[in-house]
Design brief:
It is built from three helices and eight strands. The protein has an eight-stranded antiparallel barrel with strand order 1-2-3-4-5-6-7-8. It has a domain at 36-71 and 83-132 and 154-194 and 221-278: Porin (Beta Barrel). The chain is rod-shaped and about 95 Å long. 11% of the residues lie in helices and 60% in strands. By secondary structure, it is mainly beta.
Length: 279
């Protein structure tokens, strides 16, 4: 009885030492550290995205150089308008403002470094915003070379229309959890049309009673313009994106666009609301 008892006591004494030589089995679990808030922000905003927007714009049209004034130089060439009725009054058509809504789509890519974001975005907007300015001038008691006396009315009009535009913009922002405020800047390309018209109407009669000379009447019209014109401009803006789910975002944005040149000289102040999907 003493030998079995001694063996049992020996095994009990050595069990802790043997257990220390074997690895602990944890059922296949491997400890995983939770992502930091900085890493989570990067995951939320990094990558491609696309969406659509609705906008409301206030547009201001400038007088183009293809105005009635610029047409006056050759207006009476080879015309039958009597010399006394060839009005050459200057026009001051001024600025025109108008408001219009539109809709479009955008696509872009974000790169996040810490909390800072830089990216590139392109958008297209469909809208039809235009303006027409008209002025009429009437002169009375004009005398033709033959002696007839009458009146003449000179009417000038100029118009421009923007049918849509697109932009390519750099973006910079700051990731703050589900919100990301940003600023943008880049180039804009617009498509539209413009035109100007100059029209003179006159009528005169012989003041003698009975009349000796035949009455005079007629009109002279000249039109210039072009459709499907492309114009170049610049754009700046600011806004904020907000993630409502891991892949769906909402957007509020302000955008200023100015198109250069004389064909469609317009600037736009625009507010936008959009929804997008992050891939």
């Amino acid at each position: 009885m003493r030998l079995p008892t001694a063996l049992a006591l020996s095994m009990i004494a050595t069990a802790p030492a043997l257990g220390a030589d074997f690895p602990v089995i944890r059922g296949g679990f491997t400890p995983v550290s939770s992502p930091t808030s900085e890493e989570a922000d990067q995951t939320q905003w990094d990558g491609f995205y696309a969406g659509g927007h609705y906008q409301y714009s206030a547009g201001r049209f400038l007088s183009p150089t293809t105005s009635p004034n610029s047409m006056m130089g050759g207006f009476y060439n080879n015309s039958g308008v009597p010399a006394g009725f060839r009005l050459t009054d200057a026009y001051n058509l001024g600025l025109g403002t108008t408001n219009r809504s539109g809709f479009g789509a955008f696509v872009g890519y974000n790169m996040v470094f810490g909390d800072a974001m830089i990216g590139l975005e392109a958008d297209l907007t469909k809208m039809a915003i235009g303006y027409t300015s008209t002025q009429s001038l009437t002169r009375t008691n004009l005398t033709a070379p033959g002696g007839q006396v009458g009146d003449a009315t000179l009417t000038g009009s100029t118009s421009a229309r923007l049918d849509g535009y697109g932009t390519i913009r750099a973006r910079a922002g700051w990731a703050a959890g589900s919100f990301m405020p940003f600023i943008t800047g880049g180039v804009a390309i617009g498509k539209g049309s413009y035109g100007s018209t100059l029209n003179l109407q006159y009528a005169a009669a012989d003041p003698a009673v009975p009349a000796v000379l035949p009455p005079l009447s007629g009109q002279q019209t000249q039109t210039t313009g072009k459709n499907d014109v492309y114009v170049l401009g610049g754009t700046v803006g600011a806004g904020v994106d907000m993630l409502v789910t891991a892949n769906v975002m909402l957007r509020a944005e302000y955008q200023y666009v100015r198109f250069f040149g004389s064909s469609i000289p317009i600037d736009l102040h625009t507010v936008r609301a959009g929804v997008g999907v992050k891939f």
